[in-house]
Amino acid sequence: MIASTLVSPLTVPAVVGLLTPLLSTGYADVLGAAGPAVNGGFAFTGVVLPCAAGIAARLLLSERGLDRAQRIIVPVACWARWC
Three-state SS for 83? Predict the structure, then answer.
């Protein structure tokens, strides 16, 4: 699981590049235009950094501090996902 997260900045752009030729013209154009945004930086900030922050929080916070953080972070994350 950790290995796939760490290599995602490499695999996400590769998969997008491989799938683009398989799509019909309209979808391929949209995916091709989004290609520069779906680079390693996107996967790094959207996948690797949040995972690393979660691991660091588990290692650094006490049980009480982790419970407090989760009471704030979980609702905010759910809200942000649906906005």
Answer: coil
Q: What's the one-letter identity of residue 82?
A: W
What are the tokens at 7?
Answer: 């290599």
Q: CA end-to-end span of the chain, whole Å?
A: 28
Give the separation between CA 57 and CA 52, rounded to whole angstroms. 9
One-letter-per-residue 3-state SS of 13-68: HHHHHHHHHHCCHHHHHHHHHHCCCCCHHHHHHHHHHHHHHHHHHHHHCCHHHHHH
CA 71 – CA 69 distance, rounded (Å): 5
Question: 29-54: per-residue pLDDT in tens?
Answer: 776 676 666 666 777 777 788 888 88
